[in-house]
């Protein structure tokens, strides 16, 4: 059984159709990289999976539970808000811009969601947070504030914070796009470590080398459609579609 399924997802912003019938099935432990030019709908699709954006039409299931289903007439069938909240907890989200709370220490950023959402015991939440900071190599920065950290360190904190709710799926929305090149490697290494631990991951990225090394599948999107999908080696080294070849040649030339 798939851990995540999205079927025929459509999304408009005003009169602009951003997603035009996107479907995706994700198996447990699978790493999927989504690539494509800016404006192709990659980030919108990722946000729809977590219901950060509502869909106009389609169906999203997480571990067999229907989060949302909209029929062709626009009528929506939702799970209860309680069930939706429970399903959303299964999906950790890491954004481009870190989104840490600036007035909280690193440790407090990690403890907040377990305390508020899961009503965790404070001592247990602290222990878990410290273990996660150790996991991302920031055990010595628990009492630091975000402004005291480099961009790469902030993004590693953001990954640790997403892991604090023990999600079944991790979604990454271009997690290195706001980083200087020398800071990108430390974030990608954390993601590689998660992949080695068989964390299910859906990653929107421009890091073609990372996609080739870590992803089992690569999806190329353009203009709201999936143009090409397949094993990472096949799509990245021997793409079938001319549009995919053009995109990859430009990305690789830019590097």
TrEMBL record:
GO CC terms in record: plasma membrane
Principal location class: membrane
Key words of the record:
Amino-acid transport, ATP-binding, Cell membrane, Membrane, Nucleotide-binding, Transport
Q: Does the keyword Transport apply?
A: yes
> What are the subcellular locations of this protein?
Cell membrane
The record's GO molecular-function terms, alphabetically, read: ABC-type amino acid transporter activity; ATP binding; ATP hydrolysis activity
Q: Report the SMART domains cross-referenced here.
A: AAA (SM00382)
Membrane-protein topology = Peripheral membrane protein
**Where in the sequence is the signal peptide annotated?**
none
Fetch the Pfam families from UniProt. Answer: ABC_tran
Q: Which InterPro entries match?
A: AAA+_ATPase, ABC_ATPase_HisP-typ, ABC_transporter-like_ATP-bd, ABC_transporter-like_CS, MetN_ABC_transporter-like, P-loop_NTPase
Top-level division of the source organism's lineage: Bacteria
The ABC transporter domain is annotated at 4-248
Report the sequence similarity comment from the record: Belongs to the ABC transporter superfamily.
Name recorded for this polypeptide: ABC transporter-like
